[in-house]
Structure formats: structure tokens, C-alpha cells
Amino acid sequence: MSLSVTVCAAVFGGASAAFVPRPAHRLAVPRGDHPRSTCAACAAALTTWVRAGAPCPCARPPVWTVMAGAVVTGVLAATTGPALMLLVLLPVAMLGILLAVIDLRCLRLPDALVALLGVATVVPLSLGAVVAGDPGRVGRGMLAALLSGAIYLVVALLPGGGLGLGDVKLAAVLGFTLGFVGWEALVAGLVAPHLINGPAALILLLTRRAGRRTGMPLGPALLTGALLAIALT
Ligand SMILES: [Zn+2]
């Protein structure tokens, strides 16, 4: 892929990700609560959803979020090229970062955002495949979504599985895009999250930043795993 497309995508990703902290801060609330209307740290009013940089003037600049946005979109552009797939995945990546930040903060993946992620991928990719005369990819994506959702549902229902239904729904939604890319991508996307979360949990335990009973978000690993699967297969 051309360097200029990759650099443009990374700049888009970094700039867009700067707008993630405000909605993430407002939406990172316990299930059933309304979005936050005041800052959790200083109680200042958060009247709008749009703010570049820190969620509130009292917070630090979101350096990691911006870097994650640039890396994710740069990797997508470098590996998928300026095709329909890239046009669909660039904005979707920002939704993914928003979901990951919320999950890291409050161990939740809001249904509305997961549904939006699904619509934003399934509709344009399906239309594109049908127009390109390759509807089989849509069927493969649907089957992959079902398989991925079913596998994660079984794990979630196991005692001590440690998964929430939000993880199951996200796995199903990501399964569509992985299956759309190919079966290898689906397998990689199913395995990678555990290769990411396993060592991460071990490091947190060893550095005593988490205990055996600390809840561990799976959403960021699911999203990172899907990104790696799409990039590497
Ligand atoms: Zn504040």
C-alpha cells in the first residue's frame, strides 16, 4: 500500500480519536444509568458530546487514545488498501476505540454502540459485495457471525467463563467482518483475543495491579484481535 494513503489514514485516525474521550467519559456509566452530565473528577458540567482532547479541562490529554487511533487506522490502510473495505473500516475503527475505552473504564460494551458497529459494517460491506457480484461473502460473513456469537455464548454460560453478554454480541458483530474477509481471518480473530488477554492478565497479576477476582475487559482484546486478523490474513 502506498505510504501516502497510510499516512493520511493515520492522521485521520489520530485526529478522530482525539474526539473519543468526551463521549467515552459520558457513556462509561453503570448499566441502566443515564450518560454522565458532569465530570466524574471535578463535577464540571459536560454539556456537549463534542470536545477534542481531554474529556474535561481537568483531565490529562488523551495521548494513548490518539496514538491508538493513528496506529489502528495506519495498520488498516497499510494492509487493506484504498478499497471499499478501508472506507468502511476507518470510521468503524473509531467506534471500536470508543467501545474499547468505555470497556476499560467500566467493563461495559453499550448495546447501542455495538449495534451501530454492526450496522456500519454489515450494510456497506454487504451492498458492496452484492454490487461486485460476490454475494457469497455476505453469506460467509453471516455464518461467521453466528459461529463466533455461539462460541462466545457457550463460554459466557460456563461457570467462571468471565464473559459478559456484551462480549458475546461484540464477538458476533466482529465475526461478520472476519468471515467476510475469510475463514482464516475468523479463526485468527477467535484465537487472538485470548493470546492478548492471557499475557495481559498475567502481567497485571504479577505486578499486583489486579487480583484473581478483578474483572478483566475482553472488548479491547476482541477488537485488537479482529484488527490483527484483518491485517495479517
Ligand atoms: Zn473535570
Tell me the strand percentage band. Answer: under 5%
Number of domains: 1
Label the overall shape. Answer: globular
| Count of DSSP strands | 0
Low-pLDDT parts are none
What is the multimeric organization of the chains shown? Answer: single chain
C-alpha Rg, in Å? 18 Å
* Number of helical segments with 4 or more residues: 9
| Distance, first to last CA | 15 Å
The helix-and-strand class reads mainly alpha
Which H/E pattern describes the elements? HHHHHHHHH
Overview of the structural elements:
With 233 residues, the chain is mainly alpha-helical. It has one domain. It has helices spanning 3-17, 21-27, 63-80, 84-106, 111-131, 136-157, 165-181, 183-206, 219-232. It starts with a helix and ends with a helix. The mean pLDDT is 93. The site of zinc ion (ZN) has 7 residues, from loops.
